[in-house]
Design a protein that fits this description.
505 residues, 15 helices, globular
Length: 505
């Protein structure tokens, strides 16, 4: 059962229609890949921005999580909402229309599977849904688990059918780019065989003739957040005369890959090649290399809306944060390519959110930007929650002609990070951290429509990690705001440490 065009198009809009939403932020990805993410169990909180949809006084929302979410975090999101008055002048309470549900299971098993084993929660959700009201299930990604849950609840799923997953894989992405005529790096198609991978690497090196192939990026076909990538340096394989290596030389060199995740090793990775499959692409080099992306939503078979472009902040090849909008020199080209990809996905049956990652570089000092497509994500991405947070709070419009978001008369910019992380932050609580930020004036201003909005606060106490989206009227202002937030976190940690030392004394 797919979502109606209305829900797929505007579930985040300001239209005050009766609507029931079930949010299931299940991290339904490979458990081994998910385990590489710091505080992965808390990433279900990234979709708490959906609580801001309660600004619609006719909307009810059931939010599911593996473990109960701290009430201070829930209250924080509700505090960002404007008040609503009914026709008779009475305030419409937000909390009475919000239902927080949890099986209280902290394991890394996907949330949708936990809910399937919790008939009491399924029954409770069914009692929340109003018979005469439109409804939908919102998720992080649409797998068989999410689809089964939607069928059990008899509600549309705001995601692509699971049989569309291949178009969000590394190999499927390359097929889409080639079909759309979008530039992409020279590469090796999907293989599950190490011997075959070596043969294809050899053939790829042979095609380059006098221009040696320096590096390859080897990617697990369904890798997550860059953690399934590895860089293979090929230069040591060439002889001094420039002769090509043998197949045996290449296979013996594979264990020297540099893995994006510190938890990965060749022994485990080689087994994943056989089980999951890999592709490989030329490592692209140049001047001023950046890693932007474009986000869109497939509304129907004939309609795709572009939502945003971002510059991604990567540590190696792993996503850490982003800034909005992307560089004005090439963001309209990102939109153009994103639209082409979206329309192809729409024709193949994809619905809901998608993102496309790129590599952009200058080939020489005075050259234009060279834009190369990297991969497609058929799910919410790390850029989804900051963008929809801005949309829901700033109440503006995205201008596709300029690639900017305007609220009132001002264009908005933001910097978002999932990784404000220090060991000294451990032990702090969300309520204490938020109170300190308030003292420093680091709060959302609903009049100016600027300020920091925090997320991943459940990871603070146990992991010393928190996220923030700094929304401002320019990139410079957003950057300054982020620096103030980081400084305040450090000061708060130092103050807490001093108090603890004083108590010991």
């Amino acid at each position: 059962m797919g979502p109606s065009e209305h829900i797929c198009e505007e579930y985040w809009s300001h239209h005050e229609r009766p609507l029931d939403l079930i949010v299931v932020p299940s991290m339904s990805v490979d458990s081994e890949e998910l385990a590489k993410v710091k505080a992965a169990s808390c990433y279900e909180e990234r979709q708490l921005f959906t609580l801001l949809l309660l600004r619609n006084p006719h909307l009810r929302l059931a939010y599911c999580s593996s473990t109960p979410i701290d009430e201070s975090i829930v209250n924080y999101y509700l505090s960002l909402l404007p008040s609503h008055l009914s026709d008779d002048g009475l305030e419409v309470p937000h909390r009475e229309r919000l239902f927080m549900l949890s099986p209280n299971d902290p394991t890394l098993v996907p949330l949708c599977e936990k809910l399937a084993q919790s008939p009491n929660i399924i029954d409770e959700i069914k009692t929340i849904l109003r018979p005469s009201c439109q409804s939908s299930l919102i998720c992080f990604t649409g797998t068989d688990g999410e689809r089964k849950l939607a069928l059990d609840l008899n509600v549309p799923l705001l995601a692509s059918p699971p049989d569309m997953d291949r178009w969000g894989s590394k190999s499927g992405s390359r097929e889409i780019f080639q079909e759309a005529g979008i530039p992409l790096a020279m590469g090796i198609d999907l293989t599950h065989s190490i011997k075959d991978l070596c043969q294809r690497i050899h053939d790829m090196m042979a095609k380059r003739q006098n221009n040696i192939l320096k590096k390859l990026v080897v990617k697990l076909d369904m890798g997550f957040s860059g953690n399934g990538n590895a860089v293979l340096d090929l230069e040591p394989l060439y002889t001094k005369k420039g002769d090509l290596p043998t197949m045996e030389d290449i296979e013996a060199h594979l264990p020297n890959m540099e893995f994006a995740s510190k938890f990965e090793n060749w022994g485990a990775f080689s087994k994943k090649i056989e089980r999951c499959g890999v592709i490989a692409e030329e490592w692209l080099e140049g001047r001023d290399v950046t890693s932007p992306s474009v986000q869109g939503v497939v509304v129907s078979s004939h309609r795709v809306d572009i939502l945003s472009t971002h510059e991604q902040v990567l540590q190696g090849q792993v996503y850490k944060g982003c800034s909005f909008p992307a560089n004005k020199d090439y963001r309209l080209r990102l939109q153009e390519y994103g639209q082409k990809v979206g329309m192809l996905l729409a024709k193949k049956g994809v619905r809901g959110h998608y993102g496309v990652d790129f590599l952009v570089r200058r080939l020489d000092d005075d050259g234009d930007w060279d834009v190369q497509a990297l991969e497609i994500n058929l799910r919410s991405t790390g850029t989804t929650h900051p963008n929809l947070t801005m949309r829901l709070l700033a109440d503006g419009e995205y201008n596709t002609e300029r690639g900017t978001f305007q609220a009132d008369t001002k264009e908005k910019a933001y910097i978002a990070s999932d990784n404000l992380h220090k060991s000294s932050y451990r032990g702090n609580t969300p309520s204490s951290m938020l109170a300190y930020m308030k003292k420093q004036g680091l709060v959302w201003d609903p009049v100016a429509k600027t300020g920091p909005v925090f997320h991943l606060m459940g990871a603070l106490q146990g992991h010393g990690k928190v996220g923030v989206t700094c929304i401002a009227n320019s990139y410079k202002e957003a950057e300054e705001m982020l620096h103030r937030v980081e400084k305040a976190l450090d000061e708060d940690a130092a103050s807490r440490s001093s108090r603890q030392e004083a108590q010991k004394a």
